[in-house]
Design a protein that fits this description.
alpha+beta, Ribosomal Protein L30, Chain: A, three-stranded antiparallel sheet, binds L-tyrosinamide
Length: 99
């Protein structure tokens, strides 16, 4: 059974280090490469060179890491990807998972 001190330490650790979440873009057959590069630049603040590299990586390996954020920010990024993609008629999707 955990002692009071162990609980206190767990609490302090949780306060000091909020969980982080990895946000991935997923590959599909319909979203244009240019659109994915634009998303990586505009939402994930990548340089053009980085964005192109990540996009090609996703194209070959099915998903690619775009950034690591707190829960709320990761959730917002995922929603922004889907919203922008829908507006442009692409099925691009993003997922998040605990680091
Ligand atoms: N596979 C897409 C194509 O050939 C390009 C693409 C790359 C789509 C990355 C989504 O997350 C993605 N047009």
């Amino acid at each position: 059974m955990a002692t009071d001190i162990e609980f206190e330490l767990q609490d302090e650790t949780a306060l000091a280090y909020p969980k982080k979440y990895k946000v991935y873009l997923l590959n599909d057959d319909y979203t244009s490469m240019d659109f994915v590069v634009d998303i990586l630049i505009s939402l994930f603040h990548k340089s053009y060179e980085e964005a192109e590299k990540i996009m090609l990586d996703i194209h070959k390996k099915d998903r690619g890491l775009c950034g690591i954020y707190t829960h709320e920010i990761a959730e917002t990024k995922v929603m922004q990807v889907v919203k922008k993609a829908k507006e442009s008629g692409f099925p691009l999707k993003a997922t998040m998972e605990e680091e």
